[in-house]
Protein: Sodium ABC transporter ATP-binding protein
Organism: Ureibacillus sinduriensis BLB-1 = JCM 15800
Amino acid sequence: MENVIELRNVNKAFNGFELKDVSFSVKKGFVTGFIGGNGVGKSTTIKLIMNLLQPDHGEVSIFGLDYKKHEKEIKQRIGFVFDQNVFYENLTLLEMRNIIKPVYRKWDDALFHSYVERFKLPLKKKLSTFSKGMVMKASLTMALSHHAELSIMDEPTSGLDPIFRRELLDILHDLMQNGERTIFFSTHITADLDRIADYITFIHNGRHIFTKEFYTIEEDYAIVKGEVGLLDRDTEKEFVGIRKFNHGFEALTAYKQRTQNIFGDTVILEKPTLEDIMLYTQKGINRYVESHT
Ligand SMILES: Nc1ncnc2c1ncn2[C@@H]1O[C@H](COP(=O)(O)OP(=O)(O)OP(=O)(O)O)[C@@H](O)[C@H]1O
């Protein structure tokens, strides 16, 4: 399967934060959801993918090409939605379109107007008067109007009402129908991913934890429930994190089969949500022993 984005051993350090040895790839023709808590490095990774930042070490390639030699060609083929307003606020949407249009060889005015209509956006009002949702819709309109092969979006659903969030997910779903497009988007709202993501890439504290096909996550990860008496220093090591209650414990394992072999039918295994995986991982490997007694 072809990779549209590849990161190989990418490092980027700021004062107090570091992306460490991040390697993962994004498959052509699929939707990959990019998840992780606040401040774990999602936007930094996306900026590296967009060449808005350069890695200290390691390589980023897009469509198999290197930014050093092929920046223009790569950018032509990407539609980018950023989580901050990147428009000139004093301009109208039409004026902004006039600036952006000549940049893209495959700009499609009919497509632009179809999104403007669908999103009910005013063409002649200053962008400074747009609400947060309208800015996001305008940003999406620009990103979707030049037949980009790869759409990269940083938190496209944040700050949007549930109705528009659903509409956006439907649009993304429709876009995927021809099999040629690829979408990579970050989100905190893991419920959005249930609807459309084929793959999940998860980072935590600047490290890549996994990239997996969505449906295979439950082959490795499970919520484990059992009696506290089953836990000791050795068995606790089996878990990413544990919560202890009066009546028993709940834990997350990343090695479902092994856990099953160790505990047999003394425990109950359940399918975890992405939120469970984020929560237990965020609290620290084997360090999250929370008592509710
Ligand atoms: N240009 C920069 N200079 C210094 N530190 C930075 C810079 N950009 C990001 N950081 C720091 O790097 C860390 C990761 O930030 P990043 O924006 O990538 O996180 P994120 O996962 O996108 O978070 P959120 O979900 O809250 O937006 C943060 O601690 C942030 O303060």
